[in-house]
Amino acid sequence: MAKERADSSHIRPVRRLLLAVLLLCLAVLVLIWRIDNPRVERLRGAITDRIVPNLEWVMAPVTAAGRMIDDFQSYTRLYQQNEELRRELQQMRAWREAALQLEQENARLLDLNRVQLDPELTFVTGLVLADSGSPFRRSVLLNVGERDGILDGWATMDGLGVVGRISGVSRNTSRVLLLTDAASRIPVTVMPSNQQALLMGDNSGQPLLEFLEQPEDISPGDRIITSGDGGVFPPGLLIGHVVVDRDGRLRARPSADFSRLNFLRVMRSHPGSSLSDPGGLIGPPWPLPSDDLTQPTLEEAEELAVEAEATDG
What is the pTM (predicted TM-score) of this model? Predict the structure, then answer.
């Protein structure tokens, strides 16, 4: 016990002495580093050149720890940005849902108010009774038919864009063949290039655009409307916008929401007037050629007739 006490009594003064020397060295080092003198500056440079290269192995863990802290801070920033993007995406989805609901509500109000932009283009509103969509056929059933004056081939819309055409009419119901069906073929016009094309369904959500004369003039986002060729679809009905798929083919993204088909408009097509009497286009007869380009009087005409008879006799 006495020996341990003696050892502790010797260690304590040594510790105090080492601590005092260390503090003195640190104070001197601080003073040297604070002195603004050329000689001291050379001394500092010499000490740095002598000590720092030998301390690389000591600084390696510190450098690695600093990099890890930087990477963690960068990961934290990326995580925060990702969370912000997710919140913005959720807000955009909510706004998109609200916009779709407002568009559907606007279309229904227009149907109820019977608002018509074209006075000659009338329509009949029908309720979608059933959706018989399958991997091989895209069609829906409406509660309007022959009693409502529905004819086969008329175009149908949901208030936003063209949905398809009537393909089969019964007394009280009619079937609508959607433009996404593989049997659907619709002549369209791509705006603003005003190119004619054929919209061909392939049982996907985005029908193909085929038979374009100059596909290089078509850009994604161009509007697609019905051309009216064939006399079945009225011209100028909105179908959708141009998109490019992964294979580089031009397709149409329909404006109509096929997942929310509740009410459909059946557009009454008015056939254009035909020219049955082409003679009506011919103007009045030109005057008979004469020297003075004037019409003869009645007496002159009688004299000419007498002279003609005498000559014949």
Answer: 0.49
Structure tokens at 96: 């998109």
Our measurement of the distance from residue 194's CA atom to the centroid of its chain's CA atoms, rounded to an integer in Å, reads 19
Tokens representing 210?
A: 């085929």
* pLDDT for residue 78 is more than 70: yes
The 10s digit of each residue's pLDDT in 196-226 is 999 999 888 899 999 888 888 888 888 899 9
Task: Look at the chain and count its residues.
Answer: 313
Q: What is the 3-state secondary structure (H, E, C) of the chain?
A: CHHHHHHHHHHHHHHHHHHHHHHHHHHHHHHHHHCCCHHHHHHHHHHHHHHHHHHHHHHHHHHHHHHHHHHHHHHHHHHHHHHHHHHHHHHHHHHHHHHHHHHHHHHHHHHHHCCCCCCCCCEEEEEEEEECCECCECEEEECCCHHHCCCCCCEEECCCCEEEEEEEECCCCEEEEECCCCCCEEEEEEECCCEEEEEECCCCCCCEEECCCCHHHCCCCCEEEECCCCCCCCCCCEEEEEEECCCCCEEEEECCCHHHCCEEEEECCCCCCCCCCHHHHCCCCCCCCCCCCCCCCHHHHHHHHHHHHHHHC
Question: What span, in angstroms and rounded, lies between the C-alpha atoms of 84 and 73?
Answer: 16
131 vs 154, residue with greater confidence: 154
Domains present along the chain, CATH in parentheses:
8-115 (no CATH), 123-267 (2.40.10.340)
Amino acid 281: pLDDT = 44
> Omega before 192 cis (within 30°)?
yes
Largest pairwise CA distance in the chain: 178
